[in-house]
Amino acid sequence: MSAQDEGRLRRLWWGPEPEVAADAGHGQAPPRVGFFTDTSVCIGCKACEVACKEWNAVPEDGLSLTGMSYDNTGALGASTWRHVAFVEQQKPLGGQQARVDHSELDVLALARRGSGTPVAEAEMTPTSPGRDGSGELRWLMASDVCKHCTHAACLDVCPTGSLFRTEFGTVVVQEDVCNGCGYCVPACPYGVIEQRPGDGRAWKCTLCYDRLGEGLEPACAKACPTDSIQFGPLEELRARAAERVAQLHRDGVADARLYGEDPGDGVGGAGAFFLLLDEPEVYGLPPDPQVTTRDLPAMWRHAAGAAAALLGAFALAFSGPRRAAGRRRAAGRR
Amino acid sequence: MSEAGVTREGLTGRRPGREARFGNGMNGPAGRHRRPEGREGERRGGGARAEVVPPAAFASYYGRPVIKPPSWEAPDIAGYLFLGGLAGAGSVLAAGAELTRRPATARAMKLSSLTAVSLSAAALIHDLGRPERFLHMLRVLKPTSPMSVGSWLLAGYGPLAGAAALSDLTGLLPRAGRAATCAAAAFGPAVAAYTGALLSDTAVPAWHEGHRAMPYLFTASAATAAAGMALLAGPLAENRPARRVAALGAAAELAAARTLRRQAGRAAETYERGAAGRLMRLAEGLGLAGAAGAALLGGRARPAAALAGAALLAASACTRFGVFHAGLASARDPQYTVRPQRERLAAAG
C-alpha cells in the first residue's frame, strides 16, 4: 500500500478529514453544512424542540415533570432530536448588557423603589440581598442536537448500511433499511441516537435532510428567535464561532469556550458544535469524546490473536503428550 | 433545596427528592457528585494500597448518563455471547475429536454446536427491533462494524455446523460431513472471538476500555463452555482432551478477566459491584471448581465429569452475563464516562 493510500485510510478512520462527503463517494458535493449553537444567547424558549417535532413529525414521548429546572424534556433520544438543557448555578455573569430600550421608563423612580413591582407586593426584589449571603443565580441554557460527527461511530458500526453520509456531510438514518439491531445506540459517544419503543428502529436528527435538498435551513435554526442556533457551511460557522468567542472574552465572559469545533478532536470535529459557558459535562456532554472505531484495528488484531490462541489451545489439548504432566506444560506455554 | 432563592418562601418550599441540583456551581458543592465515604478504594485485595487520593468530584447534568446503554435484552445478547462461544469452540472440539477418533464426543459436540448456533440465531433475531428485517444484516459487509462481520461469519458458520451434525446423525455423505466439520472448526474460533470486538466497539466504558483483553476473555470462556459440554455429554474414555481444555480455558478465563479489569481503569468497579460483581465472582468460583473437578475426578467417575462439565458451562455463562451487566452499569453512571475523559484531558495538558 502506498503512503498516500495509507494516509487516506487513516483519514477515513480518525483525525481531521476535510472532505467527508467526497470521501463517502459523493462526486460533486456541496459544502459541508452544520450547526453552530451559541448557548450564550439561548433563552430557553424551546422553539427549536417544537419546530423539530412539528417539521419531522416526531411523536410525543412523555409529558412528565422532571424537577430539573425548566428541562422537562430530559435528554436527546429517539423522539427528541433537539433538547434544551437548563442549568442553575450560583455564579454571577460578568459584564452583561441586555441593550434593551428603557427610554420610556422612569428608571430612577424604579431604582428608588427597588423593584418594578411595588416592594410591599414583591417581597423579593432584584436589589434585595440573598438570604444566606450567597451569590447570584446564573441560568445556563443550551440546545443540544446530534453532532453529525466527522467520524461517526453510529455510521461506522451500522451493520445494514442504514446510516449513511449525505452529500451535505451529515449523518442520516434510512428508516426503510434499519432493522433495529440497536448497535448504533451504545456506539454514540454523546448518547444521541436511540431506538424508539414500539417501533424498534433507531432515530435521530437528520439535520432536516429534506429541507436541505430544497435549499431551506433546518426547522430548529429557522425557528430560533435569538439566532442561538445558526445553520450554514461548516467553515463559515467555525470562523463565526471563533469571532464570537473572542468577542465574549473581550467583554469579560472568560467562561466562554467552543465545544466540538476542532477537527483534531476525538471525532474529527463535530458538524454541530457549540459555544458553552461552562465545562461540557455540566450540560451533559462528554468532555473528550472519542469515536470508538478508532480502536477497532486493535480490537480486530486482538480478536485474531484470541481466535488463534483458541485454536492453539485445542491443538495442544488433542496432540499433547498423553500424560498429566503435559497439561501443566501446555498451560505454561499458553 | 433551592439555594438560588428562586422560591418566594425560600427554604420553606423545600420538596424532598424534587430539588434541582446545580450543574457545576462555583460557590457550592451541590452540583458536584461525591462518592460515599469509604467506597472509592474498594478493590478486593487492595488493603495495602489504600486510596490516598481524596475522592474526586465530577460534574454532570443532574446525574444523568452521558451515553445511552444498549437496549439489548440480557437473555438475548448475553445469552447469545454464551451460546455463540459454545458453538464456535464446540466445533473445534468436535473436529479434534473426529480427527483423533473419538466419535461419541464428536457427535455430541456437533449436535451441541448446531443447537447452540440455532438458538443464537433465534436470540439475535428476537432482539432486533424489526425481526422481519433480519436479512438486512446481509445487505453489506462492513469491516468497521463487528456486527456486520459477525453476521457474515454466522451466515457461513451456521450451515457448516448444520451439515456436520446432520451428516454425522444420518451417516449420509460422510466425506462431505467431515469437510463440513473441518470448515466449521475453521470458522469456530472467529465466531467465538469476534464478539469481543462486538462489545468493545462501543462507547460503553467497561467494554471499550477493556478492548484488548475482551476477545481473549471471550475465547477462553468459549473454550471453557465447550470443554464443559464435552465432559457433560461425552463418554469418560474420550474426555481427556476436554479435561485439558477445561484447565486451560478456566485458567485463561481467570487471567483474562483480571487483565480486563486492570485495563478498564475506573470502570473496573462495575465488574466488582452489584449484579455484575456477583456474576463475575461466581464465574471464577465455578470455573476453578469445574476445572479442578475435571482434572481430579473427570477421568474416573461419570457423575463427577458431568458435574464438572455443568459447572464449567455455568462459569462461562456467568462470565458473559457479568460482562454484559458491567457494561450496562458503566453506561448508566456518568462518572465512568466523564471522569476518565477528564483525566485524559488533564494528562494531555
From TrEMBL, chain A:
[4Fe-4S] cluster 4 binds at C158, C178, C181, C184. The chain crosses the membrane at residues 299-319. PANTHER family: FORMATE DEHYDROGENASE, NITRATE-INDUCIBLE, IRON-SULFUR SUBUNIT. GO terms for molecular function: 4 iron, 4 sulfur cluster binding; metal ion binding. One of its GO terms (biological process) is formate oxidation. Keywords: 4Fe-4S, Iron, Iron-sulfur, Membrane, Metal-binding, Repeat, Transmembrane, Transmembrane helix. GO terms for cellular component: cell envelope. It comes from Streptomyces hoynatensis. Residues 33-63, 137-168, 169-198 form the 4Fe-4S ferredoxin-type domain. CDD domains: FDH-O_like. Gene3D superfamilies: 3.30.70.20. Binds 4 [4Fe-4S] clusters per subunit. This is 4Fe-4S dicluster domain-containing protein. [4Fe-4S] cluster 3 binds at C146, C149, C154, C188. It is found in: Cell envelope. [4Fe-4S] cluster 1 binds at C42, C45, C48, C224. [4Fe-4S] cluster 2 binds at C52, C205, C208, C220. Its cofactor is [4Fe-4S] cluster. Pfam families: Fer4_11, Fer4_4.
TrEMBL record, chain B:
The keyword Lyase does not apply. The chain crosses the membrane at residues 77-99, 111-129, 149-167, 179-199, 214-234. Coiled coil: none annotated. Keywords: Cell membrane, Membrane, Transmembrane, Transmembrane helix. One of its GO terms (cellular component) is plasma membrane. It is a multi-pass membrane protein. It is found in: Cell membrane. Residues 1-49 are annotated as: Disordered. Its main location: membrane. Pfam families: NrfD. Signal peptide: none annotated. It comes from the Bacteria. Belongs to the NrfD family. This is Polysulfide reductase. It comes from Streptomyces hoynatensis.
